[in-house]
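Researcher: Good morning. I'm working through a list of sequences from a screen, and I'd like to move beyond sequence-only analysis. For each chain I'm collecting a predicted structure so we can compare shapes side by side. This is the next one on the list. No need for commentary yet; just the structure.
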Amino acid sequence: MRVTFLGTGCPVPSPHRFGPSQVVRHGDTAILIDCGSGVTQRLAAAGLSGADLDAVLLTHLHSDHVMDVFQLILSSWHQGRQRPQKIFGPPGTKVYVDGLMALWRAEMDQRIAHERRPSTSALETEVTEFGPGWVGRFGEMEVSAVQVDHRPVVHAYGFALTACGRRLVVSGDTRPCEGLVEAARGADVLVHEVVARGGMPVVEGVRTAETVANVESYHTRSDQVGAVAAEAGVGCLVLTHVTPPGTDRAALLEEVGKHYGGPVVVAEDLATIDVERMRVTFASGGVVALGRH
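Model: Good morning. Structure tokens for this chain:
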């Protein structure tokens, strides 16, 4: 089981960290988790396309996590997908996807009529909404949804994925919460969001002190995430959804390391974690062994 980070950023635009998204692969099965800005370009850079995906899983419906859903559907059609896109998400996902497709209906109808492609199946969607617990089996991967605390967002989830005795947990967006700790207990890899403590200064006309406090309040700060990993006893902690995207990596590692003594990886776009071999490969070609768990 391998997880490739397509986007490790947040709503703040960055040329280095695209919108939140990762693809998990095992054997011939590929699952996309979240669909942030630039996901189709990052899929191409990773040697994949929307035509290869067996499922799209959405943690929640914040715009930075679903921004490129339509782009994914359209580009999958251009890439020769011959089946509907299967989308799994929390309550509200069907209304969102149906509304998105309705918004672009006239443009799609024009393309279909003019381009005369052999199939339009890729422009169809099959939406399944889930609650806490079992989501499904995809190839040899089993996926469960973990309710997390991203209030005022009501329906927010992380995911626990297992295959061949290995377990990967993805936090989604959340403040520290006991439910995620329990779901991640003993996991080989925990992929967790992080907000750098003090990383968002007050800027007149951009954000007030209240803005900063409120944003930090429904995420997990850099002085908290290590304790989450330590309490769960995970084999490796991987930090993503890095906020702000230009956060100093060394300072981030130092702060997280005060609370968690295991391996910590600051994810980069197009880096891949091999959960079975416990190795991380970066787009630059660098490879790091994370130790066995």
